[in-house]
Structures are given as C-alpha cells and as structure tokens.
Amino acid sequence: METELNRLVSALCTSASVLQGALNDENVPSFRSDDPSPHPCDGGIPPPSAWYARKALVGLCHQIIALVQDPLERSIIDFTSFNVSSSINAVTRTRPTVAEVVLSTGSKGIAMKNLAENTGLNETKLCTAAASMLGEAAKTPSDSQHSSPFALYHHIELYDWVKAHPEQIRPFGRAMDTAEKILDPGFVLDLPVQDLGPKVTLVDVGSGVGGLSMQLMKRNPGWKLVLQDQQVLIPQMEAFWKKDVPEIVESGRVTFLGHSFFEPAPLPPAPEDSPYVFMIKSVLHNWPDDLAAKILENLLPAAPPGTVLMIVNYTPAEPEPSKTTVEEFFRRIDKHSMAEIQEAKIPLPDLLGVGWGFGDASGMHIAL
Ligand SMILES: C[S@@+](CC[C@H](N)C(=O)[O-])C[C@H]1O[C@@H](n2cnc3c(N)ncnc32)[C@H](O)[C@@H]1O
C-alpha cells in the first residue's frame, strides 16, 4: 500500500539523486558535514536542477517531520526556537567566537567547560530569552492606525529604531544583503527583464544596498540605476558599490538618492531614450495597506503612462493542485536554464510546493 510517508520518502530519494547528478555534471564536490567551507552551490546562481533539488529536499524533510513527529514535541521545539537566534547572537559576539575555538580544535573537538573558559561564556548561560507579541498584532487590521508587532514590543517602529541606533545600520544592511544572497539567487533569472530593452533607468525603491540591482546592472551594460533609500543608509550603499563594482560607480551609471518614499519621488523626467522602470523589492510587506498604497502613489509624479513597475515580493498564495509527478518535474527541467523553465511554466508537483524548502509563499508568509 502506498502511504503518505512512502510518497514523501520516494520523492526525497528522487530529489537526492537529481542533486547528486547535478553536482556530478557541474564537477563540484558532494556536501560534507565535516567541511565548514562554503559549498560552490551556496550563493551565486546555481544550476536549476541543483537549486530545485536542494529546495525539494529541505521542503520534503520538513513535511516528513510534520507527518511523523509528535505534535506536542514539535510545538515545544517551534515555541522555543527563539533560543536559536539568541544563542547565535551570544556565541558570535565573543572574541574569539565559539566557532573559531571549535574549528581550531579540528577533529578532536572540545569539552563545553573548556569552550566556556576560552570564550568567557558562562557554561550554563549560552541562551538569552527573546519575546514576540505577534499574537496580539495578528488580531488588528493592516493599517497605519495600528502598531506593527515590532512597535508593540519595542514601542517604536522598526525603521525609526534603526535610525535611532546608527551602530545598527551596518549590521542591518549586511543582514539584508545576506538574506538576499540566500533567498534570491533565482530572482534575477525569474524577472521578465529581457522585454525591457537595452536602455532603461532602473529605480530601485527602498533598495537597501541594492544587491539584485547590481546583478541586473552587470548583465545590462546600457542600463542606468537610481538606488533610493533613507538618507542614513546612503554612505553604506555607496561603499558597497564602490567596493564590489567600482567601474559602474565611476562610469556614473548609478546614482544614490537619499529620500523617504512617503514623499513624492523627487526625480527629474527620465531621458527619452532611457525610461524609468520602477522596482520595489521586499518592501511592501513591511507596511500596512494604506502606507503600501502611499509608497506606490508617490512614484506617480515620475511615472508617465506606460511606465513599468516591478513588484518583487514573496506573496502568500495557494498553489493550484498539480498532476506533475516529482520524477516528471525533474526530467522536464533537466539541462534547461532557469529562464527556459520559467518560460515553459512547468507546474510544481504538489509535494515540492510545500514547506520551507521552497522559501515560497507558505514559508515566507509565516516568516514575515
Ligand atoms: C526589507 S528592506 C529591503 C531592501 C531591498 N529592497 C532588498 O530587497 O534587499 C526594506 C528597505 O526599505 C527601506 N526603507 C524603510 N523606510 C523607508 C523610507 N521611509 N524611505 C525609503 N526607504 C525606506 C529600508 O531602509 C530598507 O532598506
């Protein structure tokens, strides 16, 4: 009899062999738990089969856990998961860090007592508590009259808090850039940018350091770019671009605009041969509905009819039931580029569209 568990395990085996095959094809090493160096598939743009297979494996493991684990045990683990982030905070702030001490001992390992002595941490106090008021915030409407979960807890809105803590600006920018590298390698290929033409002026609204825009600028030498964010972030954005792509900065293709998107965009009319294309990525979910609408309205003065707006965001979605099997899906995407896969609109098998593995609708909706 085919049980739910059998189906998941069989999809898991298929995904594992697709991943191994893709690694072999690319001539890159297998994953090893005893090798802390970054794997070649981490970051950057991976081959599509490896990308999908990795996500599938993670998503399927989550589904198997959800299926077989005692719900009470699971809920206790989920409830206490804040310990992970507070522990990471504790163990990375020591000098040397916990990771540095552990790695320096090689395969011998180190006793907790010695680890505590070497890092100055109390052996029994590696965790600190964090708190969330999400439950309370979940009951209120999405509008600017009601506080966000962050403000309910900290009595200040997130970006006002960042502004009031200039020492947090660098870590915040780094966190956004890292999150982008982890979550978004497929974005650059998913965006329908090939239709935009060889000459546009891309305006990245609430750009942060603008990692995705940087990838787009590298691929489109005729494009110009305006990176728009809060004035306090501009020095960090400039430094990021000067370090990674000095030639783009020196050529004048990128400009940095410190401006609040709650005011009308102060942009001159776009050059006739290089129209504005507005991109707003991972921003709208941060704001209640009325303020999200205001951000978009404020682009209108600089957007004549026909201007393109690209909203790049994880959105909650209920996937349509799909008849595609896991084997068939991997067979159809084999050796194709991400752009070809998107173009072919191959439906994701139901088993692969679920779970954090895809960092998709369901996973990100919960996270945000
Ligand atoms: C979640 S981050 C997204 C950054 C970037 N688009 C990305 O995808 O990595 C949201 C961005 O909105 C910016 N932001 C917040 N309030 C703003 C405001 N009033 N005007 C302009 N940008 C703002 C923040 O500084 C931050 O860089």
From TrEMBL:
<dbReference type="InterPro" id="IPR001077">
    <property type="entry name" value="COMT_C"/>
</dbReference>
<keyword id="KW-0489">Methyltransferase</keyword>
<protein>
    <submittedName>
        <fullName>S-adenosyl-L-methionine-dependent methyltransferase</fullName>
    </submittedName>
</protein>
<dbReference type="InterPro" id="IPR016461">
    <property type="entry name" value="COMT-like"/>
</dbReference>
<feature type="domain" description="O-methyltransferase C-terminal">
    <location>
        <begin position="148"/>
        <end position="322"/>
    </location>
</feature>
<dbReference type="GO" id="GO:0008171">
    <property type="term" value="F:O-methyltransferase activity"/>
</dbReference>
<dbReference type="InterPro" id="IPR029063">
    <property type="entry name" value="SAM-dependent_MTases_sf"/>
</dbReference>
<dbReference type="GO" id="GO:0032259">
    <property type="term" value="P:methylation"/>
</dbReference>
<keyword id="KW-0808">Transferase</keyword>
<dbReference type="Pfam" id="PF00891">
    <property type="entry name" value="Methyltransf_2"/>
</dbReference>
<keyword id="KW-0949">S-adenosyl-L-methionine</keyword>
